[in-house]
Amino acid sequence: MDCCDAFLLGLLADHSPITPAETIALTYWWQKDRLADEGLTHFLTRQQVLVADAVHVLRFMRQGYVTFTDAFSLFAAHGVEKARRHLGPTNQASGKTFGDKPVALQPLTSLPSLECFTVTEHNAVRPHADLPESPLPRPGKERRRSAVEAGQMLGKCLLLDEIGRGGSSVVFRGFHQGLQVPVAVKVLLADDANLPEHALAQFRQEARLLARLRHPHIVGVLDFESHAELCYLVLEYVDGVSLNELIRHCGRICWDRVAGLGLQVAEALAAANRLGIIHRDIKPANILIHREGHAKLADLGLAVVRRDGDSPCPPSEALSIAGTVAYMAPEQGTASAPVDHRSDIYALGATLYHAVTGRMPFLGRTRAEVLRKHAEEMLIPPHRLVPDLNGSFSQTLCRMLAKDPRDRFASYDELIAALTSVVNPARLHSDRTEPTRCDGRARQTQEPSRMRLWWQEWSAWLERWRTRLRKQP
Description:
This protein has helices spanning 3-14, 20-33, 40-46, 54-62, 79-87, 197-212, 243-250, 255-274, 341-357, 367-376, 382-385, 391-400, 412-422, 425-429, 450-471, and strands at residues 90-91, 95-98, 101-103, 153-154, 157-165, 169-176, 181-188, 221-226, 231-236, 240-242, 277-278, 287-290, 295-297, 304-305. With 473 residues, it is an alpha+beta fold. Helix 8 (255-274) packs antiparallel against helix 9. Mean pLDDT is 76; it is low at 90-141, 315-319 and 428-449.
C-alpha cells in the first residue's frame, strides 16, 4: 500500500459518502480480487468506483495543491452504488458481509493512516459549486469519428487508450515501439472519407510551431504524419492531469500553487512570443500538470504567427472569433479587433482566476452573453471570493484581466516579474523542498525518515478509527 492509498483511506475516514464499515470492507474486496502488486486506488479505478484520474488527483491533493479535500469528487458516476453491490449488506452487530459470506473485522492496526499529511479545513468553496455543467452535444450533430481506435498500431506507436477528445481531434495514450517511451498521439477527426483541407493546414501549422518551440514548459513534438485519409501528431506524454481536471475534482486550488503554475506558463508564452506566436486558446484544459508539479502548455491548434515584428495580427489572420469564450479577451471576441500577446495574458489571467477562486470570471447562458460580460461587466476581485488570497497576487490577476489591452501588462517580462514577486521560484524547482501549506506558510523542509513517517500514519489511523467506531450506535 503506497502513500496515495494511505491518503485515500484518510479521506474515506474523514469525508466520504461511505461509512467506516464499508471502507473496511473495501479493503477486503481489494485484498481478495486485486491483481499482483495492485494498489487500492488503482483497483478501485479499474472497478470504475473511482474516476479515471483518481491516482493523479490524490497525488496533487497530497502535495497540497487544493484547499478543500474530501473523497466525494473522487467517486465516479454511480461509483458508490457499484461498490455497495460488491460489498453486500452491512450487519453492524455481527460484522461485515462480503458478497454472500460474513467476514470478521480484522484489527484496526492493519489499516494505515495519513495523519501526518494535514487535511485542510473546509474554508473554501465546495467542488462543483460554481462550475457549469458539461455542455450537451448539439442537436443534429453526430460524434465525429476517428480513423483509428485504441489497440491499433499507428506508425510505430501502439495506441493504448483514449485520454482526450476535442472538436477537431482525439488524443490517445500510446507507446512508441522504436523509442520505447510512452507518448501522446493526437489524431485529426474526419467528417467523411477525406480530411478537409483547412483542417489539414491548421494541423500542419500546429506541428511546425511545436517543432520550433523547445521549452521545458511546452509539450514537445516527436513526429508528424499527414495523408489524405489520416493525419496525426506524436507528442510528449505528460504523466499527470490537466488543470481543468484538477479544478473539476477538487474545487479551487491553493493560491501559491496557482501562482507557481502561472509563472511557468508565462515563461512558456514568452518563449512563444519571441517567435511571434500567439496561442489564442489558453484555458485550464490546455495546461497539463506533471506528477512532479511542472506545468506544460499544450494545443497550438488555434495559434497564429505575427508576420511583421510586434504588430498585432489583423482580424483576417486571426480567423475571426476563435478560442474558448469563458477565457477569451474582449478584443478576441470581436471579428473586427486585432489580437496580440496581451490577449493571451488576459486568457492566462482568466485561467488562473478560475483555478484560485473555483469559478470562471464570467458566466452566461450563451456565448454572446459571456462575450458581452467580458467586454462590459465589472470583474469581481478574486480576494473578495477568497479572503485569504495574497493581495499582490489578486492585484496581478486584476491587471491581467483589464478590459483595455493597454491597461494590462505590456510584456511578458513585466508579468513574469510580477508573478516572481508573489512566489519564490527556487521553492518551485527544488526537489528537496516540501510543498507549502494552503495558508502560504512553508512546511518543514527536512524530510522525515520513511520509518518514522509510516509509524506516525499507523498510530494516528488506529486512534482515529477507534474514535469514529465508538461514536456509532
